[in-house]
Amino acid sequence: MAIEKILKDDASEEKGERARMASFVGAIAITDLVKTTLGPKGMDKILQSTGRGNEVTVTNDGATILKSLHIDNPAAKVLIDISKVQDDEVGDGTTSVVVLAGELLREAEKLVAAKIHPMTIISGYRMAAECARNALLQRVVDNKENAEKFKSDLMKIAMTTLSSKILSQDKEHFAQLAVDAVMRLKGSTNLEAIQIIKKPGGSLKDSFLDEGFILDKKIGLGQPKRIENAKILVANTAMDTDKVKIYGARVCVDSMSKVAEIEGAEKEKMREKVKKILGHGINCFVNRQLIYNFPEELFADAGILAIEHADFDGIERLALVTGGEIASTFDNPESVKLGHCKLIEEIMIGEDKLIHFSGVEMGQACTIVLRGASHHVLDEAERSLHDALCVLSQTVNDTRVLLGGGWPEMVMAKEVDELARKTPGKKSHAIEAFSRALVAIPTIIADNAGLDSADLVAKLRAEHHKEGCNAGIDVISGSVGDMAELGISEAFKVKQAVLLSATEAAEMILRVDEIITCAPRKREDRM
After folding, report:
1. 210 is catalytic
2. pTM
3. In terms of Cα–Cα distance, which of 17, 111, 102 is closest to 427?
4. How many angstroms separate the CA atoms of 88 and 82, rounded?
5. Which residues span the membrane (predicted)?
6. pLDDT in tens, the chain (527 residues)
7. Whole-angstrom distance, CA of residue 476 vs CA of residue 440
8. Is 206 a catalytic residue?
9. What is the DSSP string of 418-475?
């Protein structure tokens, strides 16, 4: 026994078959978990935390579901990672990437059982992925030159992205919002400039796009409710020092009049500070911290709109959008960049008053106001819209577009199958397996819609043997449909990212032949 014990107590290792078994099982379990959310008829998941307040999230977004899971299995963690990366990189396709990687592993498991070495499988997968990518490259559509067509492409992509989400009922409305917002960005992928504000109440249809900036604050008392040609100073400074604030400070005085003097001196200091601020020639002052009554009075007397306690996100965005900088000292007014906008006014959304800045410096800024029945609906709507915005902003840069609805997978599968027939040796089995894994995606889309997937996918395969075919699965009518007519499109960049990440993740898991789990650290009793 003594010889075998190299690892510490409680540490365990899994070798060879068992290790591979563990990775396959973990990865496939994760795939089965999220695959029901795939496609227009995909279902949502409720995630309930056991922490305080038992928060509930209802979501359809693969990355969100997987992020919230706490998982022990190492292979499953790899899949969760690729879905996160997919979310950060292109925003959509988070479920597809996990499903594809899982299917590749499911196929690999059969091949390993048939005594084919994992390295052979990997090199086969490599060849297949390359071939699949080229197949897509040959079939992409690029309407960069024609602005009208490109805009309709964007609309289609947005509607396709949204159709598997909660917004699918009003997808035209939201696709329009997303496309307008992204078109204003003029090609930058900086989504900071698009602000999303969630206000419960109304229905999802009442959501709208506003081309200014909206700050979720009320305008203070006795201040102008409306300012034209505003010069805005955005600051992060303390405007509440009309009391001695040092913790535990003691001032010994011998009469009440001395206390009054101290207070007077503090007031003077504040008045000086306000004077300095007014010296910038501004008519709107936004502060991140509190503004006490006294300075607020002074601002109101000078006819200046003072907004206090704006949250940090709001302030950074506001500075970015109005072209100002966040100031914290006011001694030299010429060095501070002021923000500008045409009009500041108060607006009502539902019950709440908000401050609306319109005609801002940065033309690309806009705000999307989401309305909806409850917080859960709004959170999910925001996630869905964020996916759509990410995909669109990527597509504006990389204008290549593909059809959707399982069409790209079938195109790739067909090419990959042909490659398998030409390839001698054991690799051909792996390449064939890759094509089966690709076909799994349309199969799952059909399964989720409760259709006969075997029948549909066979029909699709037959259709795809004709040249220049646009067939994909039309989930609404439950048959094979023409994707070009139905206007179901996807961004090439998303598909490419799905294909490459999934292949690499599957490779990584396949390379494993031993899992060593480290022993947990013992906690000392501190009693």
Report:
1. no
2. 0.82
3. 111
4. 10
5. none
6. 444 667 777 777 777 778 888 888 888 899 998 989 888 888 888 888 777 777 888 888 888 888 888 888 888 888 999 999 888 888 888 899 999 999 999 999 999 989 999 999 999 999 999 999 999 999 888 887 888 888 888 899 888 888 888 777 888 888 888 888 888 777 666 777 788 888 888 888 888 888 778 877 777 667 777 888 888 888 887 776 655 555 666 778 788 888 788 778 878 888 888 888 888 888 888 887 877 777 788 888 888 888 877 776 777 777 777 778 887 777 777 777 888 888 888 888 777 788 888 877 666 678 888 888 888 888 888 888 888 888 888 888 888 898 888 899 999 999 999 999 999 989 999 999 999 999 999 999 899 888 898 999 999 989 888 887 888 888 888 888 898 888 888 889 999 999 999 999 999 988 888 888 877 776 666 65
7. 19
8. no
9. HHHHH--STHHHHHHHHHHHHHHHHHHHHHHTT--HHHHHHHHHHHHTSTT--EEEET
Phi, psi dihedrals of residue 191, rounded to the nearest 5° = -80, 0
**Distance separating alpha carbons of residues 275 and 184, to the nearest angstrom:** 39
Between 427-448 and 118-139, two packed helices, what is the crossing angle to 10 degrees? Answer: 60
Question: With contact defined as beta carbons under 8 Å apart, do 120 and 426 qualify?
Answer: yes
Task: Spot the catalytic one: 37, 61, 92, 322.
Answer: 61
Active site residue 95: yes
Angle between helices 492-510 and 74-89 (to 10 degrees): 160
How far apart are the C-alpha atoms of 107 and 436, rounded to whole Å? 8
Active-site residue, from 87, 379, 387, 474: 387
Amino acid found at 98:
V
Q: Compute how many other C-beta atoms are within 10 angstroms of the C-beta atom of residue 422.
A: 8
Give the domains, in start order, of the chain with CATH numbers: 12-141+403-517 (1.10.560.10), 144-210+371-398 (3.30.260.10), 213-362 (3.50.7.10)
Distance from C-alpha of 226 to C-alpha of 303, rounded to nearest angstrom: 11
- Active-site hit among 64, 94, 322, 367: 94
Pick the catalytic residue from 64, 95, 161, 367: 95
